[in-house]
Specification:
alpha+beta, 193 residues, disordered N terminus, 4-stranded antiparallel sheet, 2 domains, Dna Ligase, domain 1, single chain
Length: 193
């Protein structure tokens, strides 16, 4: 069984330990509801989780990425965004086969709650603080703030990899592509050893 990892729970955290645990459990229950073909009922611990927010849900299985899907824009209440993105990460991330029933209990989940997008200059980007969205030629690539930290990337690599994710040349950020950033409150589970 996984336990909530609340290292970032500090004075700057917007979501309480209880709210984080609720959202992580809700993500698991949403995946299980699809596998078991049943509806889930939920009672929110307060109105805060009903506020519209962009969110990503990232799934790991035995330390490896198993799916990641999200919404940049705040189109759903946060609790619903987590439900939708958890299901999409488990069953509709085209990079992976759908999660199987025997895998569900072994998944560890990470949730990223996003701020609204804002324009940013390359020299203003802070690794670990900002996620990036690069857009040009009808294409768009997004990387969460934790990605460059996990891979040990510097700023230029982060910019190039975000362009690559968009299917653009790796230097598109220098040649007129739109560059936007966001921050994220990231929390998740760690497996008990």
């Amino acid at each position: 069984m996984a336990s909530p990892d609340c290292k970032p729970c500090g004075p700057a955290a917007e979501y309480s330990v209880e709210e984080r645990a609720f959202l992580l459990q809700l993500a698991h229950r949403s995946i299980e509801s699809i596998l078991e073909s049943k509806n889930i009922e939920t009672t929110l611990p307060g109105p805060h989780l009903a506020e519209a927010r962009g969110a990503f849900t990232t799934l790991h299985l035995e330390g490896r990425l198993r799916g990641c899907v999200g919404y940049v824009a705040a189109i759903y209440p946060l609790y619903r965004a987590v439900m939708e993105t958890a299901v999409s990460a488990a069953f509709h991330d085209t990079r992976f086969s759908p999660v199987q029933a025997e895998e569900a209990s072994r998944l560890t989940i990470e949730i990223s709650v996003l701020s609204p997008l804002f324009p940013i200059k390359p020299e203003e980007i802070q690794i670990g603080k900002h996620g990036l969205v690069i857009s040009a030629e009808g294409r768009r690539g997004l990387l969460l703030p934790q990605v460059p930290v996990e891979h040990g990337w510097d700023l230029l690599t982060f910019l190039a990899q975000t362009c690559r994710k968009a299917g653009l040349p790796t230097d598109a950020w220098k040649r007129g592509a739109t560059l936007e950033a966001f921050s994220a409150e990231v929390f998740g589970e760690t497996a008990n050893l």
